[in-house]
Each structure stands twice: as C-alpha cells, then as structure tokens.
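Retro notes
What went well: the complex prediction finally ran end to end.
Inputs used:
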Amino acid sequence: MVLKKRLPDGSQAPQWVQKIQYARNSIAYMESAARRYGDIFNAPVIGNHPVVLFISNPQAIQQIFTNDNKQFIDPPNQLLKPIAGDYSIFTLADSRHRRERRLLMPPFHGERMQAYGQAICELVDKAMSSLSIGTQFSARNLAQNISLDVILQVVFGIYQKERFDRLKSLLVQLSDSLKSPLISASIFFPSWQKDWGPWGYLRHLQRQIDELIYAEIHDRRHQDRAGSDILSLLMSARDETGQLMSDVELHDELITLVLAGHETTASAIAAALYLIHRHPQVIEKLLAELNDLGKSPEPRAIVQLPYLTAVCYETLRFFPVAILTFPREVKEPVELMGYQLTPGMRLYGCIYLTHQRPDLYPEPKSFQPERFLERQFSTYEFFPFGGGARRCIGEALAQFEMKLVLAKMLSGYRFTLADEFPEYPQRRGVTFAPARGVQMILKEKLSYPKSA
Ligand code: HEM
C-alpha cells in the first residue's frame, strides 16, 4: 500500500521570517521555493494560516478551478477588505459572492465591450495629445491616465467634469500610495494599519473618494439619466429576489472595479510597451499586421489580430501583474498531487510559477509571442486572470483595452525607450508593475485619422 504524504514540504524558517522574505521580494521567494520543493509547497506567508499551499501544477490547478466535487471553497479575500470594503465581490463568499457575480458580470460580457471601443480610442488620442516630440514620459503613468479615464467613463459614467477630475486625481494618489513599501507591507500585516502615518494617509484619501462616489450615486438615484455605463446597469440590476443593490454595495463594487481594473490594465499595457520596444522584430511584425488593416480599422478588427493577441498573452505570461490567484480553502478531506489535504488548508494557484514552467514554455525567461501562435495553452497552463468561481470578471475589458491602446499608440506614434536599464516587476499593493515606470521618449507623431 502506498502511504499518502500528509503535507507538502516548504521552508523551515519561522513564519515571520518567511513573511518578511515574501513581502520584500515575493518573486524571488517563490522561485527559490519552487526550485527546492517543486510544483506544490507550503508557504505560510499570507494571513495567519499554518498551511498555505502554492501550486503550479496544471492538473492540480484544473482540479481546484473545476472543483466538481465541491472540495474547495472560495473564501473572502481578507487582505483586500480594508481597501475594497465589506460588500465588495472580493470580500464576499458563498451565496453572497455568487449573487454579486451574477449582478456584475453582464456589463463585462465580451460583446458589450464593442460599445466601449470608440471611447477607448478617443481617450488614447486625448492622453497622447499632452505629449510633444522629444518628451520623456513614464508609459506606466500614461497608461494609468488612460485606464483611469476608461474606468471613470465606462464603469462610472461620470460626465460632470469637476467631479471626474477630482475623483481621478484622488484615485491616482491612492494608487500611487500603494507603491510605498510600508503601505504594501501593511496589507500583509493588518496590525500595522493605523489611523496615522502612511496608512492614515491612505484612509484620508479613501474618505474623500467615498464622499465623491456617494455623491455620484445619490445624484444618479435622483436623475432620470439611464446611460450605457456599468454603474447605470448595476443600479437597475435586480437579484433573484427582486432586490436592487444598496448604496453601500454599489460604493464597494465601484471601488473594487476601479482598483481591480485600472492598476492592472495600466501595468500590463506599460509592460507590453517596454517588451515590444526591447524587441525590434516584434514591433516590425505588429506594424505590418496593423498596416494590413488599412487606414481606419474598426476596434472589432483590431482586437482579433492574431499577432497582437499573441503579444498581449506573452506580456501577461512574461511580466506578471497578478502572481497568485485569490485564495481557495480545502472544505473536506481531499487528495491533491498525492497529498492528503485536510479542511481549513489554504491554497493559491501560482500564476507566475506556472507561466515560468520550461515544460510548457521553453526558455521561459525569453519574450517570444510566437509561442502563442504555435500552441494553444489550456486554461490551467495559462491563466493570467485566474479561473473557476473567482475568475476575473474584467478579463474581456482588460484585453480589449490593452489591444486597442497598443494598436492606437503604435500605429499613430513612434517611440524609443529612454534608456537601456532593464525593467523588473515590483509590488504595488497586491499586484505588480514595472518598477521604473517604463521611461520612453516620443520620437514622431504620424499623420493618421484621429480615431479608429
Ligand atoms: C491585465 C489586467 C487584469 C489582470 C491580470 C487581472 C487578474 C485577476 C486575477 C488573477 C483575479 C483572481 C482570479 C482567481 O482567483 O481565480 C482577478 C479577479 C478579479 N478581477 Fe481582474 N484582472 C485584470 C483586470 C481587471 C479589470 C479591468 C477588472 C474590472 C474592471 C477586474 C475585476 C476583477 C474582479 C471584480 C475580480 C474578483 C472576482 C471574484 O472575486 O469573483 N480585473 N483578476
């Protein structure tokens, strides 16, 4: 009889030491653990759980995501509670979470994205018009400017200029504050979350943002303006008992969508611009593909381009924005990869480590968009947006926006990187972004039609 191993291996260092190692350099911590312990290891670095398993084996990921036998649950993401609120989809579980997904998902459906194509292209033109030839700029900041505008228009539908500008400026400050190592670390050490110091500043920003969001919800409730934005759709959405969403629920979901949606997409766009400009042959191929579409391509045609799609996938594989899925928890005794897991154990799908597996991605440290043209990867081998019951609801918007912004920028302008220094992923709250912000120089504005 083969005895089932009870617990995967992991570092023997005290939990607090491992937590500091993980908070300081999560990627180095994970790579070193994967080299020593393989596809599954214990990494008790998040929360106070003694067993936290990091998994990068596609079959195990499949077992967790499909969860046919309901052996795993999707617990609330406690780390995000202080930022997103008690009624955010991030922090809800079970039937409340399923209800929230049913309410939130329809406005993010792939087909609906087409309605936002024109707006996204115009926002790229608006952001680019602020740059002149020879200017050095941070592609991360530029992309964040665009992605925040997209969220404020597409999700919030805020048209009142004063409120739009004020909210945007506060959100930029809030998201920039997440770059602070102290604030990032406080997310993992809740006892550091005080009403003074860096966390106090974050709270101060949150209070001002809350005021503006509640004012927008209040005004909408008393107006007769039914827009095509996501807030309008959410305000009229009813759950299966006929209930509308309350103000607090709407507020927490709006904050969630802003935070989940603009940081991540901006980092992915900036990483793509960096990688494309480090690889001249990639730009050439992209430009050839874009040229073939003619002068004023439809957004729908742009987002279907195979090489552009492969470049976006390879960027999401190569330069992580999310390194882990949200947590899952063992609900009843279950066998996973030959280990006998018991209720209460925490599991994370390791997006970064799976995307670095040489058996799936030969020469994983090399940027090769072609790999996505040569092979179809399963959703357990390539999952930048997670999977299963908590799969990212903004996936279609993120990909749509990423492709349109890149296509508009590359076909209308010429850039170079401002220097030779390499970029690397740096923690920004719970996500990752290019550490140096991708410094670029605008070389040329081409004459081409204003909007796609
Ligand atoms: C490149 C951009 C993005 C990346 C890489 C990304 C990645 C992820 C990942 C890995 C998860 C966790 C999935 C899991 O645990 O299985 C997630 C969840 C989520 N994402 Fe995204 N995301 C992106 C953009 C967006 C956008 C644009 C929005 C909305 C505007 C969004 C909204 C959400 C929400 C609401 C959840 C929570 C779903 C739930 O708990 O049920 N994300 N995302």
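What we learned: The chain has 19 helices and twelve strands.
What to try next: split runs per interface for comparison.
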